[in-house]
């Protein structure tokens, strides 16, 4: 097996430069025009077969190994978030109100580095690799679906058919050097919901002549807390969160309407079905009791991320060989956070793993989606080395 760690170390200046360039020029989901253009150019320079516009702004580079074998897919997300950066870094965002606050700039840079490394070893590969640079992991962003499902609809898993997938996340909840490769559930499936209430507006001094949607909204928020607390098995993770209430515009006017937004998170089909059923019963029941008309809009944002045991074992083996002095974490590490890689892993056996990226001594320890989020760039080396080694191990 090649020394992928040394090769990633040798390419660090390239990886860092690419990451910082993407960080300076962040782009929201399905608007990654500059980012995807750079990605396509870098892949073309390597001589890979490149397909642009997959899932709107996604890019796929195809590397054909010298020997026959399966086709695997490596996924790297490219999109940024609608957050104003407060890191003060020399490579801070120059796009006001948009920043890479989740590490996707690092993921994209890692992906390009992995493409360089594995292309160098293509004569040793028994199979083929699709380098999948995905748009809009953070959410549909006004579209019907997010980037992962959009790329699937555009055929990224076909021609040739993908048999296994790998994906990673730089993880600021854990320190640099930490690596986690788990088997089974990793990230929750997510629903986005909108509740539209219509009552009867009127003067705030005459509430008896109105049907108050704000009171109804408040009761719905309170009642929804019982769905998980009193309906779901305590050993089965589930979340129902109302995250936005919008209603009214004046101190003396009871409004006509109120809108609530939120999310539901579950890991298995049985719990999901139960929560969705009780969610709708509670919302409709409270609305009827308080005489409000109600419209419920539910959209499944992503399926849960479930790691295939055999693929996870292969990645763990690669990680152990690459970092012999490191204890590779494999314990259950569930998070109710969602990741649309769940769509691909619902169709193809895959493994989604974490690479620690925080450094408390350097104050690089803010959480994902925070305005001061940044990570220790040495994690780029670990991520590129492990993804290269894991991919090669699947094709050996």
Q: Structural class from helices and strands?
A: alpha/beta
What's the CATH topology label of the largest domain? Answer: Aminopeptidase
CATH class of the largest domain: Alpha Beta
Main sheet: strand order: 1-2-4-3-5-15-6
Number of domains: 2
Give the CATH architecture of the largest domain.
3-Layer(aba) Sandwich
Order of helices and strands: HHHEEEHEHEEEEHEEEHEEHEHEH
Mean pLDDT: 97
Unreliable stretches (pLDDT < 50, length at least 5) are: none
Radius of gyration: 23 Å
Number of helices: 10
> Strand tally, please?
15
Helix coverage percent of residues? 25-40%
Instruction: Identify the overall geometry.
Output: elongated
> What fraction of residues sit in β-strands?
25-35%
Q: Terminal Cα separation, in Å?
A: 9 Å
The CATH superfamily title of the largest domain: Zn peptidases
State the oligomer: single chain
